[in-house]
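Milestone M4 deliverable, item 7.
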Amino acid sequence: MFRKVLVANRGEIAVRIIRACHELDISTVAVYSEADRESLHVHMADEAVCIGPAVPARSYLNIPALISAAKVTASEAIHPGYGFLAENAYFAKMCTTYGITFIGPTSRTIELAGNKIEARHIASQVGVPVIPGTEFPLVDEYQVKEAVKQLGLPVIIKASAGGGGRGMRVVHTSEEIMDIVARAQTEAENAFGRKDVYLEKYIEEPRHIEFQLLADSFGQVIHLGERDCSVQRRHQKLIEEAPCPVLTSEMRQEIGELSVKLGKAINLRSAATVEYLMDKTGNFYFIEINPRIQVEHGITEFVTGIDLVREQIRLAAGERLELKQEDISWVGCAMECRINAEDPDHDFRPSPGSLKNYLAPGGPGVRVDSVACPGYNIPFHYDSMIAKVIVHARTRPEAINRMKRSLKEMVVDGVKTTIPFHLRVLSNAFFIQGEVNTNFVQRRLGE
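Output delivered:
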């Protein structure tokens, strides 16, 4: 096991990783930008190193600074968390080059998973259903129009690299196709450094379901069931739950087994998530595979009792999976709300600033992942998430009521938050009945 781990991230995920390390008796090194000097993860770690100014490109995305911080502090491993460099194959390769263990997949696995077109090829080869789409990046108007002719409208444009909804556009008419492709390419290039995009047939009102994988270095891969992430706005997840309220045990087994095959096909050696869309008739289609810990990992931890970050660290240290597939069981229902510093009454515009007062909810079955406290400043340089409120209960109705109680108990003064929006969703009759899809927010709430 490692003696010292550097956490190459910030905010609640950095705190989450530090806690897991300390429970494994591993010393930790926090890195921080000048804007995060007083952040909780800096105080919790055993050591801390400033790696640059607030701008991410000069701090949390600065690979030489991170490698230098690891070498100076004699850190044996680096945990990238999610976002920033978590899916950067070059960063993983540089860690290996300098004798540092990257707590995640190999650089080659990250490359395979990160290229969505290549990932679609691999998924199809192992029998995972894929959405009809182009098998190559689109480079000219002829290719675009031919693809639309074959697929039929509507279609969705996607960036070959990256995620988070960036470089993603839906096209409903042929007249707007080239303009939208150009905009998607520009957004993709700005976000990921590559303007490659491809087309897929657009599935109307699907559910967004993802399966959690764990894999060791000895060829063992298991799945920990699914999360339903259908409540989204502009492709950004807002509320997640586990299990999916409409997935049968037979469907869970089928999709889980296919996900495991895909994990083996890309030589996964860590945690990863395979994402799918499920249409109205129950057909499911592969979207992408994310070779990292997910923001919403906590709900899987609640229903399975398995610490996913601890497992990531163990697997990176070369240990075997302690559990077999038949050992995995799911208990109750877990739900997560992402509380962001945004104003839902004004198109969710960012609301950075200092928290005048802050009180996290508590009680049975409630977990809050956050670095917030009274006086905490939410900088505009980074993601606006204040906290993840996660609840667990015996049944889905009980989980909904527990979440509503928790959000009403929560106090966040000084900035606008998405708490009122979440309470609207939780009280919506369609959500209560489990009738949700990726268009739920637009269709049912008019957002």
